[in-house]
From TrEMBL:
InterPro entries: 2Fe-2S_ferredoxin-like_sf (IPR036010), 2Fe-2S_ferredoxin-type (IPR001041), Mopterin_OxRdtase_4Fe-4S_dom (IPR006963), NADH_UbQ_OxRdtase_75kDa_su_CS (IPR000283), NADH_UbQ_OxRdtase_ferredoxin (IPR054351), NADH_UbQ_OxRdtase_Gsu_4Fe4S-bd (IPR019574), Prok_molybdopt-oxidoreductase (IPR050123). GO terms for biological process: ATP synthesis coupled electron transport. This is NADH dehydrogenase subunit 11. It comes from Cafileria marina. Keywords: 4Fe-4S, Iron, Iron-sulfur, Metal-binding, Mitochondrion, NAD, Translocase. Its cofactor is [4Fe-4S] cluster; [2Fe-2S] cluster. Residues 215-288 form the 4Fe-4S Mo/W bis-MGD-type domain. One of its GO terms (molecular function) is NADH dehydrogenase (ubiquinone) activity. Gene3D superfamilies: 3.10.20.740, 3.30.70.20.
Length: 345
């Protein structure tokens, strides 16, 4: 099969659509709703390209290749179509970039800079606002930023067999939400944050923590999963000498884990990870037991249980090496001026 892209001839023997074929050739076509692991929706219209003998631009994500197809990805018609799509998206989009957690890794920012118009037209038009949704303990929502790409809806439907997210309304009142007020109850809810191309769905744990260029990325394996899934761990230097001391900035001495994202691995997990993998690092920093609380005069009578002292961890491990404890750690004999029996609580 012969395919012509910008008057250059290519060979293709696979059943691909236009955008898949262009990705193999590393030809950039902007997208919002398209994702390689989700079903094609074709509703953002950002991937419009010009086809020879076609009266209007064609959606690249849903158009299959045919023999001797002549595609133009940089023609004036294609560029003008992309500018118009971005202009309509920005009509209702708030100017939240300085305070948006998606800043620096936002598809809308990148596409506006690369394919958007270089001037602004002022419309006598009131911006539309959408009520925020409460989707649970992990997802922060600012639905006014939503561009209705439906990535989150398709992921919930296809991968979790859950219909908690749907598209509501029509025309200018279209929004994504739940039919009734309820949480997104799934172990993969954190992937919605990765899928969202704008700042409509962000992580509550990562809110206002840092920018992508401030973080260090470490490729490693997930220790909580027996499949050894590939993940990217992002850390941020919390020392005051981050900019002045190069020795500290080049290692992890004063770094703190701020988020964990999936690393693409088509053999196991594609682009997805569980919430356990994504948020388990918080247990390293929060609710840690600093001292061992001990109780004196432990017996079956609850009223006689009295808090006595706290046992430091270093003292406990020193005592542990002395082998004066039982294997189940039920009763620990520790010498505090007198011999008493204590129990760890």
């Amino acid at each position: 099969m012969n395919i012509y892209i910008n008057n250059i001839k290519y060979k293709n023997n696979n059943k691909l659509n236009i955008i898949q074929f262009c990705n193999t050739l590393k030809i950039k076509i902007p997208v919002f709703c398209y994702h390689e692991n989700l079903n094609v929706a074709g509703n953002c219209r950002m991937c419009l390209v010009e086809i020879e003998k076609s009266p209007k631009p064609i959606v690249a994500c849903s158009t299959p290749l045919i023999n001797n197809m002549n595609i133009y990805t940089e023609s004036p018609l294609t560029k003008k179509s992309r500018e118009n799509v971005l202009e309509f998206l920005l009509v209702n989009h708030p100017l939240d970039c300085p305070i948006c957690d998606q800043g620096g890794e936002c598809d809308l920012q990148d596409n506006v800079k690369s394919f958007g118009i270089d001037r602004n037209r002022n419309f006598l038009y009131k911006k539309r606002s959408v009520e925020d949704k409460n989707l649970g303990a992990t997802i922060k929502t600012i639905m006014t930023r939503c561009i209705n790409c439906t990535r989150c809806v398709r992921f919930i439907t296809e991968y979790t067999n859950n219909d908690s997210l749907k598209v509501l309304g029509r025309s200018n009142t279209t929004e994504i939400g739940t039919y009734i007020n309820k949480f997104v109850k799934t172990e993969f809810s954190g992937n919605l944050v990765d899928l969202c191309p704008v700042g409509a769905l962000t992580s509550k744990q990562y809110a206002f923590i840092g920018r992508p260029w401030e973080l260090k990325k470490i490729k490693t394996l997930d220790y909580t999963d027996s499949l050894n899934i590939f993940i990217n761990v992002f850390t941020k230097n919390i020392s005051l000498s981050y900019n002045s001391n190069k020795n500290i900035s080049n290692n992890l001495k004063n770094d703190k884990i701020v988020r964990i994202l999936p690393n693409i691995n088509y053999n196991f997990n594609d682009n997805w990870i569980t919430d356990k993998t994504r948020f388990s690092f918080e247990g390293v920093y929060n609710n840690r037991l600093k001292d061992i609380n001990i109780i004196n005069n432990w017996n079956n009578n609850i009223s006689l249980r009295k808090k006595s002292n706290t046992l430091k961890w270093k003292d406990f491990f020193l005592f542990k090496k002395s082998n004066k404890y039982d294997k189940n750690f039920i009763n620990i004999k520790y010498n505090l001026n007198k011999n008493h029996f204590y129990k760890i609580i």
